[in-house]
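INFO batch 0412 | record 1 of 1 | parsing
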Amino acid sequence: MTLHLKKIVLILLIAGKAYNVFAQDSSSARQEGWPEVNVFYKFNDKIRLFAMYSATRLRKSDFTDGGAGLFLDYFAFGGLRKKFNVPINDSTRGYYLWLRGGYYYSVTPPGSENPVTENTVVTEANSRFHLPHDILLTNKNRFDWRIINGEFRPRYRTRLTFEKDMHTQFLYFTPYFYTEYFANLNQGNSNRFRLCAGTELKVTSQINFESYFLHQFRNGNNVDEVNAVGLAIKFYFDHRQIKKIF
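INFO prediction complete | emitting tokens
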């Protein structure tokens, strides 16, 4: 069995186990699955295009909504690049500053009981710090300028992520943990707090696979308690690879 085939088998086992946990959870929290596809195109060491599609699936139901986004990333102050050199495809993790801007669109399927259409302009700033034991800390500060069903609902999101590059003889992977708080600027009673743990695995030189478990805490009657299993496939390209193809 080739190395790539072994990795694919491992990914399928992880995905199957995650879905089994998702399907059998009997707690009072709402159970959700969050599949996602990410595509990254790097123009140079500092500028990258990011496209994504995600969906939300409730347990024992069809997909309830989906969203797509297109973003431009800018990276600066590359002093971390020599420190974090494990080849996990995302070389941009070696920069101290990471800025993102873009657009996100989400809509519920036709015939939904409570139809929702969301148009969001995203502005985001991330700062990164080197901690002992080669742990990378990322502090994300994001503003979502949302229009939901024609109503302006801005939101601030702050996240602290701790991650560490690790590897065996054949595998490169990055386990991580983060905590995130959502502050709705004109609807304070719908703020939410989340904890998440997961890992990202390098499959090939251009593909990563990510899986995680996330818990959202209840906030009164406006924010439900949620347990979510997330599965994401990530594709990484750059202009040099495209030139070789053409």
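INFO post-check: Helices lie at 3-24, 239-245.
INFO record closed
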